[in-house]
Amino acid sequence: AVAVVAGGEVRFYGYGRRSADDPRPPDEHTVYEIGSVTKGFTGLLLAAAAEAGEVKLDDPAQQHLPAAVRLPVKGGKPITLAHLATHRSGLSRMPTNFRPTDPANPYADYSVEQMYAFVNGVKPAREPGEGFEYSNLGMGLLGHLLALKAGTSYEQLVVERVCKPLGMADTRVVLTDDARRRLAPPHDADAEPASNWDIPTLAGAGALRSTAKDMAAFVAAQLRPDEKTPLGRAIRRSHQPRAAAGGANDIALGWHVQRRDGVVWHNGQTGGYHAYVGFRPDTGAGVVLLTNTGSGTIDAAGAALLRLLAGGRAEPPSLPKLVAVPAATLDRYVGRYLMPPGVVMEVTRVDDRLYARLGAQPRLRIYPAAADRFHYRAVAAEITFFADGEGGGGGREKAASRLVLRQDGRELPGGRMGPQGEAP
């Protein structure tokens, strides 16, 4: 489902089919999981609370948590609310005690008590504000403490402070019976049936479900805050870049902001859905793309649409061509690799397919663009394997000794771990 907001008007488009068994195209009322696009809502909630005088962006996050919870202080610097909203808290992407009993619905059984236990004992690798490290944990913690401050749940906070003012009737964490009947069935990147995700504790990082109609209303408010919503000051505040985020982006309160053209955007990925939301305040144009296939390839389509709406040129997005790689070569890549900051990347083979799992995240298939280079379809990332310290050889003659994960303009190296789990 696609929504285009331009010239003060909204147009909706539906492509494909709702599922293998349902040939109807989706429409603006079809419900999808929007994953990390939720972070744009969490950033707006923080900005709104700051505008209302309920919190300050530089408040220590500790100030708004129970006394028994002690956030780490590194270098004498406490983690602030702004640090959490901009992925500069020093907290890791995911807590190390995240061990889902059901990998198909990985967040469902992660509890508030587990989150508290982790932050009580964690020792961050860097000081707050020292650098950008994308953190679902940090944004989930922010959503949690904002709800605590308001004396309600994260979902109800979103409904009362964002959805009701903007007329968004279908944006929820828990769906009504009517919305559930309109929920597009989830599929993985290979279009195989997948599972819905439930994210109770880290809700502020990715729990929301929505429709193209609701998200178009959300984007329209971002583009014309003074006309469309009482949240105008908070919306403008949430867009302000606050630090570099790697690659060509800065980070605002929950949003990425492209330096080149000022596009404000976020994408979202769950096990069976992908979402892209982007808009340009200078041109008054925005797009929403929602799909019930867990593939990040629609991000390029969304960015291309924005360029076209700004009068630019855009080539149709294309997938990298695949090459055939013998099973014996794939076996040379199988193993465990130690990634920064101490997270394990596990590479496995099933028949002629290679899979990668980073930490406690879901296992994702990676596809061969070359004999030693594999790309994801679920996210915009790729992995290159090396058999030696020279960066050559590609693992064709012996087992790979290391890999490099490229994502979001960053290169993350990983060295093969020994058979007993020892570091390289």
TrEMBL record:
Peptidase S12 Pab87-related C-terminal domain ranges (all copies): 321-390
Coiled-coil ranges (or none): none
Question: Per its UniProt entry, which superkingdom is the organism in?
Answer: Bacteria
- SUPFAM superfamilies named among the record's database cross-references: beta-lactamase/transpeptidase-like
- Where is composition skewed (Basic and acidic residues) in this entry? 395-413
The region called Disordered is annotated at: 390-424
State one Pfam family annotation: Beta-lactamase
Please name the Gene3D superfamilies in this protein's record.
DD-peptidase/beta-lactamase superfamily
The residue ranges of the Beta-lactamase-related domain are 1-309
Q: Please name the PANTHER family in this protein's record.
A: BETA-LACTAMASE-RELATED, D-ALANYL-D-ALANINE-CARBOXYPEPTIDASE/ENDOPEPTIDASE AMPH
What is this protein's record name? Beta-lactamase class C-like and penicillin binding proteins (PBPs) superfamily
- The organism named in the record is uncultured Phycisphaerae bacterium
